[in-house]
C-alpha cells in the first residue's frame, strides 16, 4: 500500500538520462542517479539535482552495491 511504499523511499534510486527524469524523481521525493550513456549530459543531470552521475551501467551497479 502507499504508506508501506513511503516508508521505503530512502531505499529507492531512480535512474534516468534527462533532466525531466531527475525532476520527476525529485517531485516524488526519490533520489535520482543521472546516467550519461543516454541522452543527457553530466551538467544537465547535476543541475537538475541528480545525487549521483554514472557514466556506464557498471557504474550504476557498483554504486548500488556499495549503498
From TrEMBL:
Query: Keyword annotations for this protein?
Result: Hydrolase
Q: SUPFAM superfamilies, from UniProt?
A: HAD-like
| Presence of keyword Coiled coil | no
For this UniProt entry, the molecular function terms from Gene Ontology, in alphabetical order, are: hydrolase activity
| Highest taxon of the lineage | Bacteria
The record's InterPro entries line, in alphabetical order, gives: HAD-like_sf (IPR036412), HAD_sf (IPR023214)
Q: Quick check: keyword Hydrolase in the entry? A: yes
Please identify the protein, giving its name as recorded. HAD hydrolase-like protein
Q: What species was this sequence derived from?
A: Candidatus Paralactobacillus gallistercoris
Lineage of source species? Bacteria, Bacillati, Bacillota, Bacilli, Lactobacillales
